[in-house]
Design goal:
524 residues, alpha/beta, Rossmann fold, six-stranded mixed β-sheet, 22 strands, globular
């Protein structure tokens, strides 16, 4: 019977200080199957896959490949056994090109000179075969998160791996890219590759997986045949209770204008042209306005301009009547702006700081946390962090003292959300706030965003998730190639119509749009 399994992880236990991340877990991957690994943030999924990939060594348990026990001490051992992994937080060298990152570690040399021509041909052939379009000469630091994801997948395919681990591979992809990736995974499985697929998105697991193993708080719950299960059953197994898959939201009448953007232009970080072109809109009290669009159409630069991470070329930004067009990030924060950033590692957290110090990153200079002599009040900071950790259910091995780098991606995200919401902002910029989160955490964050709106705050949401856009927004502004091409009412807009605007196949005239917050013009 063992021959049918490509990989067996038997009775794996992995401990970290203060936490048992994997508690006697057994996982068996059949040859040629897509096997999903489902669980809440911090359930131990990424840890288990990191043990298989050699990033961690388990204290107990064994790993078998094709029925034979193997020792995997590091990722080189894993690669030698044909095991590849696309990590949730990409392992890419920012200042290298896409091509350099793909071949890194398996370079072809001749007389000590790097031979890139063959590598380039192979990469472009793989890119065409699997629909993973990339610019091989672009630097990682200059490309979108979606493109970085494709680079990671190509890195794995370039090494001819047979066992492919995808850790949250769709977290940063658009709906069309997700459909493509699902098809790629099916094609890879049909070619005989065995796939382990970590996801929180039940619809994706139902769409693509043959079997699914559920983990909860580090323990094995069950392995089920996906075609015989429902999303409701899987979510209940994962969270341990029934979960609402659709947000509850009452109608609200928007109040005064909180954010007013007039003719804002922001330069592109990649090209000589502008990424945001002469954009104007308003966000009012008690409304969630969503910027929808395919990744790379200026949403990132729009938020950089609004938050102060990039200077604007021209235009005016007003927050509660105050001109903040040239204000610093701290001045905008003090004026009532909170920001849940797209890239939590680059702009949201200092990974080697404790959770406590990350919770006060934008407030450490306040009298509550700093003495008149300029010394930080450590006790106050840790007490404040403890309050937020409990209130927002942020899970970590050593509480407020935990180094943020060691926490799961979802709990890192919850820490940022706790910090930003506790500032009681007039305006919340929420950029892909549920990226990489499980259904329980998504339900909670949606309820928090709706609570912000119901308390009279303004929320500007940027999301690539069509279901999220349609379920929690009050107005939708669609961005395409740096411009707002449509203003839609989520109650009157179908998913397909929204997709047409996002793809640039449909656009409203300026007269049809009413970006000041009344009834959306295109749906009267």
């Amino acid at each position: 019977m063992a021959e049918e399994y490509a990989i067996e992880m038997l009775n794996i236990t992995k401990r970290f200080p203060g936490i048992v991340a994997n508690d006697n877990i057994t996982l068996q991957l059949k040859k040629g199957e897509i096997h999903a690994l489902l669980g809440e943030n911090g359930a131990g999924k990424s840890t288990l896959m990191s043990v298989l990939f050699g990033l961690y060594q388990a204290e107990e348990g064994i790993i078998k490949k094709d029925g034979r026990e193997v020792k995997i001490m590091d990722p080189n051992d894993a690669n030698a056994l044909g095991i590849g992994m696309v990590h949730q937080h990409f392992k890419l060298v920012q200042c290298f090109t896409v091509l350099d990152n793909i071949i890194l570690g398996v370079e072809t040399t001749k007389h000590g000179i790097l031979q890139k021509d063959e590598a380039r041909k192979k990469v472009m052939a793989l890119s065409d075969k699997y629909g993973l379009k990339v610019d091989p000469d672009a630097k990682i630091e200059d490309i979108t998160v979606g493109m970085q994801q494709r680079t990671e997948i190509l890195k794995m395919l370039y090494r001819d791996n047979e066992i492919l681990i995808f850790d949250e591979p769709t977290a940063v992809l658009t709906p069309a890219e997700i459909d493509e990736l699902m098809q790629i995974m099916k094609n890879l499985a049909a070619e005989g590759k065995s796939i382990l697929f970590i996801s929180h998105k039940l619809q994706e697991i139902i769409m693509v997986a043959d079997r699914c193993t559920v983990l909860r708080r580090g323990k094995y719950i069950a392995t089920v045949n996906v075609p015989e299960s429902t999303g409701k059953e899987l979510s209940s197994m994962m969270v341990g209770r029934d979960v609402k898959l659709v947000a509850d939201k009452e109608d609200k009448t928007p109040g005064d204008v909180i954010l007013k953007v007039e003719n804002m232009t922001v330069a592109s970080r990649l090209h000589n042209n502008n990424a945001v072109k002469n954009v104007s809109f308003e966000v009012r009290e008690s409304e969630i306005v969503c910027i929808a669009g395919i990744d790379g159409n200026g949403q990132t630069e729009l938020i950089y301009g609004l938050s102060g991470l990039e200077p604007i070329v021209s235009g005016k930004i007003t927050l509660s009547g105050k001109d903040i067009s040239r204000a610093s990030v701290r001045e905008r924060s003090r004026a009532g702006m909170s920001h849940i950033p797209e890239d939590r590692h680059k702009h949201g957290l200092i990974l080697d700081y404790s959770l406590a110090y990350n919770m006060v990153l934008q407030r450490y200079f306040e009298p509550q946390f700093r003495s008149g002599m300029g010394f930080l009040k450590r006790k106050e900071i840790f007490s404040y962090a403890d309050k937020l950790i409990e209130q927002y259910d942020v899970r970590s091995g050593q509480g407020a003292a935990t180094r943020v780098r060691s926490m799961s991606g979802g709990n890192q995200q919850k820490a940022i959300i706790a910090r930003e919401l506790d500032k009681d902002p007039k305006l919340l910029l929420a950029v892909q706030p549920t990226r990489g989160l499980d259904v329980g955490a998504i339900e909670y964050i949606h309820s928090q965003l709706i609570a912000q709106r119901d308390e009279g705050h303004a929320v500007l949401l940027v999301s690539l998730e069509l279901e999220e856009v349609l379920s929690i927004s009050d107005r939708i502004l669609v961005m395409y190639e740096g411009e707002i091409v449509g203003e839609l009412d989520p109650k009157k807009t179908k998913r397909d119509e929204l997709g047409l605007y996002m793809a640039g196949a449909k656009r409203q005239s300026p007269g049809e749009m009413n970006t000041s917050g009344g009834e959306p013009g295109g749906n009267r």
